[in-house]
Amino acid sequence: MITKRIIPCLDVRDGRVVKGVNFLGLRDVDSPVKLARYYSECGADELVFYDITASAEGRKIFTDILREAAATIFIPLTVGGGISSVEDFDRVLKCGADKVSVNSGAIRRPELIGEAAKKYGDQCVVLSADIKRVDGAFHIFAKGGREDTGLEAIQWIKDGVARGAGEIVANSMDTDGVKGGFDLELLERICDAVRVPVIASGGAGSMEDFTTLFKTVPEISAGLAASVFHFGEIPIPELKKKLRADGIEMRMEA
Question: Per-residue pLDDT tens for 160-211?
């Protein structure tokens, strides 16, 4: 049985971790460096770091904070925000990232996925998709969820994998921060369409939500969450113990 992963997400704005609901109403949480160290020490399998306003503001990611956070942790780190060229991949990887997440940059120029995969390998390229239901269809949104591209989400993800994306982060804007459970319908559609690891993001409100996720959509590789971890509502060591007790294979701390 393949081990499932638990991944905290640090949404960073102006050098601080923030969290909102449905991508809106952001509030301050803590220092990204402090939180990164905490999650590395408490049993998180990986960490995702998003500079959430870099694309919308047309600037580069906060490399100083990224470099400091990467130096404090001992788990794989995925970084995204304002990634629009192979040079951006190179810069972020040199700051300590293990994988690079691309969203708006790939929407503007899909060729970026293949260029980065050719240079760094498919395993390094993570396609992050912000997805929302629009008139009954799944649409891809850009610029931190601010802009409806009109792209149909499942086809966009299939195309991204065909171009070389080695992992998908499926961000459900409909369930983001609501804490009512993961978007199982969306995740099943994505897992039926591609054969690369898919990370579920958006909707975790309880430990049971993770059990439901992995049992209902067994192809899902990982569950990603933010506020329930940041505010201590779900301690990661306890979550992993419960998941293992529920028959879901977890990497446990020695």
Answer: 999 999 999 999 999 988 899 999 999 999 999 999 999 999 999 999 999 9
Locate the domains of the chain by residue range.
5-245
pLDDT in tens, 99-140: 999 999 999 999 999 999 999 999 999 999 999 999 999 999
Tell me how far CA of residue 11 lies from CA of 89, 210, 224, in angstroms.
19, 20, 12
Is residue 101 exposed (0-12), middle (13-18) or buried (19+ Cβ within 10 Å)? buried
List, in sequence order, every residue forming a beta bridge with 132; answer none if it has no partner.
Answer: 139
Q: Which residues are catalytic?
A: 11, 130
Kindly state the tokens that stand for 16.
């601080």
Are 82 and 44 in contact, with CB atoms under 8 Å apart?
Answer: no
CATH topology classification for 5-245: TIM Barrel (3.20.20)
